[in-house]
Write a structure and sequence with these properties.
Layout (H helix, E strand, L loop, with lengths): L3 H9 L6 E5 L21 E7 L5 E6 L7
Antiparallel strand pairs: 1-3, 2-3
């Protein structure tokens, strides 16, 4: 929950430990992108998927673990 700018800053500094992305079956056609253009691709682990009676699908993802060097 928050603005796209806040999310981009948290992602950049690797401060997010779980993503909960809800997909709504209504297409608006506009809005701020969730991930900033040029963002680096990372593979996340899917931890859960929930289906709601309204048609919304919530996907929970965990970013890759960062290892100390």
């Amino acid at each position: 929950m928050g603005s796209a700018n806040l999310s981009a800053t948290l992602i950049e500094h690797r401060l997010i430990d779980e993503y909960r992305i809800a997909i709504n079956p209504v297409i608006l056609g506009a809005g701020a992108p969730l991930f900033a253009p040029g963002a680096t691709r990372t593979d996340h682990e899917r931890t859960d998927v929930r289906l709601f009676m309204s048609g919304i699908v919530e996907i929970r993802l965990r970013p890759p673990t960062i290892t100390a060097t």
